[in-house]
Amino acid sequence: MAIANYIEKVRQGLREGRFTSEAAVSQGILLPALHELGWPVFDTSIVIPEFSVEGRRVDYALCHPENRPSVFIEVKKVGLSEGADRQLFEYAFHLGVPMAILTDGQEWSFYLPGEQGRYDERRVYKLDLLERDITEAESRLDRYLSYSNVCSGDALKAARSDYQNVARVRIVEANLPKAWEGLLKDQDSLLLDLLGEKVEDLCGYKPELDVCGQFLEMQIQNSKHLDKYEPEKKLPMKKGQPFNSTTDIIRTRIVDNFTFVFKGKEFPARSAREVMTKLFQLLSQEDKGFLDRFASRKHGKKRRYLAKDKRDLYPGRLDLAEQHSVEIVAGWWLGTNYSRRNIQDIIELALEVAGPQFRNLIRANVL
Predict the structure, then answer these.
(1) Residues 14 and 153 reside in one and the same domain
(2) Total-model pTM
C-alpha cells in the first residue's frame, strides 16, 4: 500500500473513532506507518518496542545501526498527548538520541531534544493527519521518518535545517491573522469562557455563551467597529445575578424551540444542549460502541466533550464540571458549557463517528 493510501485509511479510522487506546494507536497507526516508510517492523534489533531507559520504557526505539537508537517514539491515546513531551525528552537526553516523536495517531510532533529552548520550541514540526492534506502528510513523514532517510542521516539534517529556517517566523506571522479569524469564526469554547468571565469582571453580569458567540460573529463582519455591537434585546437585571436561560437574558431569541429527527421520528427539545444530550443518548442506545469511539476522538484544544469522569471535561475547572455536565448514561458524562456553534460542531463530530448508517437518518441543526 502506498503511503498516501495508508494515510487516507488512517484518516477514515480516526474520523470513525476506531482507535480507542494506546495499543490501538500503536498497532493500527504507528507500526503500519513505519512499515510503509520502509522500516523492518518485525526486526526487534531495529524497531525495538518498550525500550528500557533507567528502569523506565520508551514505547519504541528506531535503531541504526542495530540496537543503537536514532529515534525515540512515544505513543498516546488519541487526544491525550498534551504534556507527554517532558517524559520523552528525559529519555532522549539520557541516551543522546537526536530525534524524538510524540504521537497520538492523529497528531505527530517531531522534536530535536538537543536544541535550545522550551520543549515546544524544540518541536520541528507538528503534523495533524486530519488537518493537513495527504500530500503534505506524506512529504513530512517521508522527510523525517523514512527508514532510508534516518539511516543516511538525511532525516536529521532535514529536521535541523527546518528548525533553523527563519522562514518559519514569516509563516507564523502570516498566519496569525488567519488564526485569530479562525478562533472568532469557530467560536472556541475557551475563548468564549474568557470573554464571558471578563464581561462579568467588568460589570457583574455573566453573559450566556450564545451572546458571546453572537458578539464574535459581529467582529468578523465589523472587526474595526467594535462599538457597533448591540444586543437585540435588553431585559432588566439585578447586579451580581448571572444570565440565565429562562429569565433576565440578553439574547436574540427569547424562547428556544428545537426539533431534531432520528430514524424518521421527531424529538422536541427546549435548547441546543438538550438536542445534543438526547442525540448522544439515542446513539449510545443504538450503537453500544459509539461512546467509546467518540471518546477516542480528539475533542477541544484543552477539553473533552465526553468523559467517564466529569472532572476531565474541564481540566482545572471543577466549578464548570459541577455546573455544566450531564450524565447521559451510567458512567458517561457530557459537557454542556458550549455555544450553539460549538454544539453544532459536537453534533457533526458525533455523526461522523456514528458513520453513514446513522448520518443519513438524523437531521439536527441548532444554529
Answers:
(1) yes
(2) 0.67
Place of cell 504534556: 83
State residue 84's pLDDT score. Answer: 64
Q: Are 111 and 123 in contact (CB under 8 A)?
A: yes
With 90 as the cut, is the pLDDT of residue 34 above it?
yes
Q: Is residue 267 part of a domain?
A: yes
> Domain holding 146: CATH number?
3.90.1570.30
Distances (CA, A) of 282 to 231, 260, 351: 35, 12, 12
CA–CA separation, 49 and 41 (whole Å): 10
- Do residues 19 and 296 touch, judged by C-beta distance below 8 A? yes
Q: For residue 262, list its beta bridge partners.
A: 265, 362
Domain check: are 204 and 125 in the same one?
no
Burial of residue 288, with CB atoms counted within 10 A of its CB: 0-12 exposed, 13-18 middle, 19 or more buried: exposed
Does residue 228 lie within any of the structural domains? yes
Q: Does residue 171 belong to any structural domain of this protein?
A: no
pLDDT in tens, 176-214: 888 888 777 777 788 888 888 888 888 888 888 888 888
The pLDDT tens digits of the residues spanning 211-232 come to: 888 888 888 776 654 444 444 4
Of 67-81, 105-119, 248-262, the range with the lowest mean pLDDT is 248-262
Q: Which domain holds residue 54?
A: 3-165
Question: Does 354 share its domain with 309?
Answer: yes
Choose the final residue of a domain: 254, 276, 307: 254
105, 121, 360, 363 from 109: Cα distances, Å: 10, 11, 36, 37
Q: pLDDT at residue 60 above 50?
A: yes
| Cell numbers standing for residue 245 | 436561560
CA dihedral defined by 332, 333, 338, 341, rounded to 10 degrees? Answer: 10
